[in-house]
Structures are given as structure tokens and as C-alpha cells.
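Comment thread on ticket #2218

A.B. wrote:
> Attaching the input chain for the structure job we discussed in standup.
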Amino acid sequence: MRAIDAKVGRVPAVVDPEDETLARAARLGTEHERRVLAAYRERLGDAVTEIPTAASSDATAMADAVAATIAALNDPATRVVYQATFQTAEFVGFADFLVREDDGRWVVQDSKLARHARVTALMQLAAYADQLDRLGVPRAGRVELLLGDGTTSVHRVDDLMPVFRLAARAAARADRRPAARARSRGRGDRLGRRARRAGRGRLRALRDLRSGGRRVP
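C.D. wrote:
> Ran it. Output below, let me know if you need it in another format.
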């Protein structure tokens, strides 16, 4: 569950031991993402805005990236925003692609090398849709995963948001728990059991969402 919370910016990134297979998967995922970007640039040219990369630990760079994102979203000439940057006191995130539709609403897209929708990817999409709502930016009623097999997995935001908000509230409650409770072995054990039970329930709900999407070529 910590991996899910990390994906939506609720907790620090989960650090895993170095693994060649994971490194290769990350490299291939980046190549897939760059291919999608290249296709957008070929089709739309200067209407694609790329937000400069910013480390979350660099306050100045993050502020600049957030400002550039908002400017791009408000620019009528922009059709695609790559690496849109969002930041609040509780959330930091970088959306792969935001694509403007003809009616002016933005579609959140994430490129994934996987061949089917995964729980963490769906929660990422919901998190970015939530950020657009926070900014008052008009968004589409769907989000899209651009999968490694060339298909697109389409999901209704209304299906994702209730589960996303439930997960966010659970994470916020966990963050507010006094550290002293965790230092008590007996209480810590009980909290751990409760967290695991809640986690299993969240995962079951999230997995149910994957069957609610549709695949398009």
C-alpha cells in the first residue's frame, strides 16, 4: 500500500534495492514515453509544451515548473502539456501528458509499458485529475493509459475518484496519528493489523476498477 501512496505523492517515494530487471523496465518505460512525446510533436509541433524537469527537493525549480504548467494550461495555443507539474503541501506530481480536446477540456494521459491497467497507474491518473479540479481547470470525464502494446485503456474519472478520495483520507488520517502510538508495541501491533485489513479492502476496490475501463486501438 505504501507504493500506492507514494505514487500519488502522499508519502516519500519507496526506495527498492537496485535491480537490473527493474532498471531495464524503467529504461523501456522512458523510451515508450519519449515515443509518445515524439508522435505528439510530429503531429502538433509547437503546440506541445514541455515543462522543464524539476527535482521535488528544489523549491525554486518546483515553483517555476508549477507556474509554467499553469501558464501552458491557460495558453489557447497549447494542445499538449508534457510533464505538467503539480505541488501542494501534501502532493507533488508530474503528469506525463495533458491533452486539450476541441471543447477546451483536458484529458489526463499516462504512458505505461504494461499491457493492462494497474492499480497504481489508475490512482496516478485520479491524482492528476484531482489537481486539475483544484486549479479550476476544465477536464474531460475520462483519463487514459497509453499502454505498451499500442492500445489505450480509457477510464471514467467518476469511477476512480471515490476510491482515490477514500485512499487519500486514509493516508491523511495515518499521517495525523501521534508518533507515540507507534512506539507502543501492543498498540503498534493492533494498528498494523488494522492497516493491513484496510489495505486489503482498498486493494480489492481498486482492482475492481481495472475491469471498468475499455481498450481502444
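A.B. wrote:
> Thanks. Noting for the ticket: The first strand starts at residue 48 and ends at 50.
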